[in-house]
From TrEMBL:
Pfam families: YhcG_C (PF06250). PANTHER family: NUCLEASE YHCG-RELATED (PTHR30547:SF5), UNCHARACTERIZED PROTEIN YHCG-RELATED (PTHR30547). This is PDDEXK nuclease domain-containing protein. Residues 23-171 form the YhcG PDDEXK nuclease domain. It comes from the Bacteria. Gene3D superfamilies: 3.40.1350.10.
Length: 183
């Protein structure tokens, strides 16, 4: 069914080849293993605690090469303190990966906050031989337009990915596949 059969054959023979950050970032992430109901009200700190409790599963969901670095990592400047929800390092990409958890709709302010975190890590934390820091905002809902118009056109560092706390139904997956194949 693929339009690029050679690319699919190459993927089947070699597996996923990670050459750029986009190759390692998923959208959506399926967080069913943490045990939160689909339409329950919960806080970002509860979501974070559930992920930490199931860190091994979360690392597998993130993908290849991720290692855990910190939780609620505090950065400070100008007598102001900020906390990055989760910090990972990706051995394959050779860079830090910062994750900010958002319950609800992604806002442009969330993207600006992540840009600040990424800039800080790039300027103060990363070593000269490491690649630029990647920021992932995990949110329940996102507007592609908000992401598109908040980030620069040549963005390769900040990603907004949805998360689902339950695997979609078979019918929903079929609709998603059909809508993707029409695009």
């Amino acid at each position: 069914m693929s339009k690029d059969k050679n690319e699919i054959l190459q993927l089947a023979e070699q597996g996923q080849v990670i050459q750029k950050p986009q190759d390692a970032i998923k959208d959506p992430y399926i967080l069913e293993f943490i045990g939160l109901p689909e339409h329950n009200i919960y806080s970002e700190s509860e979501l974070e605690q559930k992920l930490i409790d199931k860190l091994e599963h979360f690392l597998l969901e993130l993908g290849t090469g991720f290692t855990f670095v910190a939780r609620q990592n505090r950065i400070s400047f100008d007598d102001k303190h900020f906390r990055i929800d989760l910090v990972f390092y990706n051995r394959i990409l050779k860079c830090f990966v910062l994750i900010d958890l958002k319950v609800g709709e992604l806002k442009h302010q969330d993207i600006g906050q992540m840009q600040m975190y990424v800039n800080y890590y790039d300027r103060k934390i990363k070593l000269d031989d490491e690649h630029k820091t990647i920021g992932i905002i995990l949110c329940q809902n996102k507007s592609e337009a908000v992401v598109e118009f908040t980030l620069p056109e040549n963005n390769t560092q900040i990603f907004a990915s949805k998360y689902l706390t339950v695997l979609p139904s078979k019918e929903t997956l079929i609709k998603l596949i059909e809508s993707e194949s029409k695009s």
